[in-house]
What does this fold into?
Amino acid sequence: MAEAQITEIDVILVLYVHNRPGVLAKIASLFYRRGLNIRTLTVGTTHEVELSKIVVRVAGPEAELRRLVPALGNLVDVLSVELADAAAVRAQELCLVRVAAADRAQRDALLAAAGPFQPTLVDAGGDSIVLEVAGAPAAIELFIETIGRFPIVDMSRTGVTTMPGRRAPRMSDALPQSDGVRFGSG
It folds into this structure.
C-alpha cells in the first residue's frame, strides 16, 4: 500500500494580538501541540500600545498549518491571523555575523566575498569583523552560505518581519473571532 505524500510548505503568519502577559505562551503552545517548529519569531508593539504584532515563519505539513490558522484565530487574545506563502510575501530580516579575521589579507578576502550583499561593517576590532546584512530570508541564507568558508564565531538573526496585505486592526474595531482569520498571499 502506497503511503500518502505529505506536502511541506514554508509560511509566514502575521498575528495581531492583545499586548498582555501570557499571550505568546498560549500561541507557542499551539505550535508545540501540533509538532510544528517555529523557524523565526518576531514580536513587538504596534502603533497602538494595547496591540502587538507577531510574525512567525514556520515550515510544516500543509494540512496541519491550515488547521493551525483557525485554532490561532479562536484564541481570545488573537484579533487577526493572516497566512502567506513565505516565498510570495515581501519579508525582511536582519543578520549580524562575527567572523574571525586575524590579519589584513583575511579581512580583505572576507569583505570581497561579502561585497555583493552590501554589508555594513559594524566592528573591525581585534581579531574579528562584525558584518550586518538586511534582506529577504533567502538572501540572508545565501549570504551565510557565501561567507561560510570563513570561520564564523557568532551569528544573530532577527527573524522575518513583513507588512500584511491589509491594514492592521485597531483595538476599537472589536473584530469578531470568525472574521479574524484570513488566508492570502501577502
Summary: Residues 91-157 form a domain with the Alpha-Beta Plaits fold (CATH 3.30.70.1150). DSSP finds four helices and ten strands in the chain.
